[in-house]
Write a structure and sequence with these properties.
Number of domains: 3
Structural class: alpha/beta
Radius of gyration: 24 Å
Distance between the termini: 59 Å
Shape: globular
Mean pLDDT: 89
CATH architecture of the largest domain: 2-Layer Sandwich
Largest sheet: 8 strands, mixed
CATH class of the largest domain: Alpha Beta
Strand order of the largest sheet: 1-2-9-7-6-3-4-5
Length: about 425
């Protein structure tokens, strides 16, 4: 018997220290995540090779008066670009334009040429685009705006010491245009030919005194990051408007009011929440606010793209769907094209249109800007747009979602830890 116990002791598996067990589990998890991400990217690349020009239904909405301003919604890029170019061409005092992505394609060159022409006429023209987001854009295009155009290629990590300051990792995700401090544009559209006809997005034009707030926001950003001596000295009169507010995330100041705006509005909802977002990866507080609204009887509907331009984000986002559906939140999936809009309207009274996604980069990371609007007339248009977008798409049901293949569920589970990076 003693010999048998001795033999078993020799054959037993040695116990590992706790930290080594944790290390091995982490290694396995990272390996599984890497394999899953690689597979998704490869599948997405194969699918994109079969690229066909996409089209989607869109509507034209009338201009709405809100206080002293006139507001116009755009859901089709080409129509928006035409209105933006018209505003540039008519400017007499200044043109401020800022875009996260600015392609060097036909549309990108069209904007460049209109801006260069206006600058050559003696109108001050200021351009901002994000350096990291445009790494693949040829340097020859970035330097082709001409000597008369003031150009700022925003760089998040301009100095080595910035690597040790998390606030400096933020990208400039804003998209806006202001002409003469009187006509302003804000929303999700970047500048490029793809977005003109193949992406479903939402942008807002503001004609009136509140456009000066967009101008002031642009000036503040420019003067903070431009080279010494190139500061903008023009000042447009600020206004306090109870009907239209601008909410801007400022990473350097650690202020993130857009997330708080969403949570406050959701907590106040009594009847409906109609939310459209390109990348639905909410933190637990925002998600709990939506779930609580649904449980108290609010009709909560969320519209997301079924296939976006970030396939991994799609799968991470789907990891939320089970608990959303179980709590009564309705999930609609847009299949016509890439849905890039960032909008919400609540109780036919409150609305927001802007640049911020419902993910961590937009909530507590990048520079963002949203317009918050208190208007029943405008909210009715936002509802019309949402119902149009969801009229011929598909709604997920809890039964169908729970019945999806096991390997899909496993992939979503493996990718769940990536939420903190999105």
């Amino acid at each position: 018997m003693a010999s048998l116990r001795k033999l078993i002791g020799h054959l037993s598996i040695p116990r590992l220290p706790l930290w080594q067990m944790i290390k091995r589990v982490l290694i396995v998890m990272v390996a599984l995540q890497s394999l899953t991400v690689t597979a998704l990217i490869v599948i997405s690349a194969i699918r994109n090779r079969r690229h066909e020009e996409k089209s989607f239904p869109h509507i034209r909405l009338d201009e709405v008066r809100v206080g002293d301003n006139r507001l116009q919604l755009y859901d089709y890029g080409r129509e928006l670009y035409d209105a933006m170019l018209e505003a540039i061409d008519s400017a007499q005092e200044s043109v401020f334009i800022e875009s996260f992505i600015w392609k060097g394609d036909e549309v990108g060159k069209e904007f460049r040429d209109h801006l260069a022409k206006k600058a050559a006429q003696g109108v001050p023209v200021y351009v901002i685009f994000d350096g990291f987001a445009n790494l693949v854009v040829p340097r020859s295009f970035k330097t082709s705006f001409g000597d008369h155009v003031h150009l700022l290629e925003y760089q998040a990590l301009r100095h080595p010491r910035y690597f040790f300051d998390p606030r400096r990792y933020s990208l400039d995700h804003r998209k806006l245009l202001v002409a003469d401090g009187k006509i302003g544009f804000i929303g999700g559209y970047n500048i490029g030919s793809l977005y003109a006809t193949e992406w479903r997005d939402t942008h807002l034009r503001i004609c009136g005194p509140d456009a000066s707030e967009l101008a002031s926001s642009f000036i503040a950003f420019w003067n903070r990051f431009c080279d010494n001596g190139d500061e903008i000295t023009r000042h447009y009169k600020r206004c306090f408007d109870p009907l239209i507010n601008l909410r801007g995330n400022d990473a350097l100041r650690l202020t993130f009011p857009i997330r708080d705006m969403y949570i406050d509005a959701i907590d106040s909802a009594e009847h409906t929440i109609l939310l459209t977002n390109a990348y639905f990866v909410p933190d637990h507080i925002l998600l709990n606010a939506l779930k609580a609204a649904a449980k108290r009887g609010v009709d909560v509907r969320v519209l997301v793209p079924w296939i976006s331009n970030h396939v991994v984000t799609d799968w991470v986002s789907r990891g939320y769907f089970t608990e959303c559906l179980q709590s009564g939140i309705r999930i609609f999936s847009y299949r016509y094209a890439m849905l890039h809009a960032k909008t919400c309207t609540i109780d036919d009274q409150w609305s927001t249109v802007g640049t911020a996604n419902l993910d961590r980069w937009s909530s507590i990371g990048n520079y963002e800007i949203n317009a918050e609007i208190f208007s029943a007339d405008f909210a009715r248009q936002m509802r019309t747009l949402f119902e149009f977008d969801t009229s011929d798409t598909f709604e997920l049901t809890l039964a169908d979602w729970i019945g999806r293949p096991w390997y899909t569920k496993l992939s979503e589970l493996i990718l769940t830890p990536l939420r903190i990076f999105m």
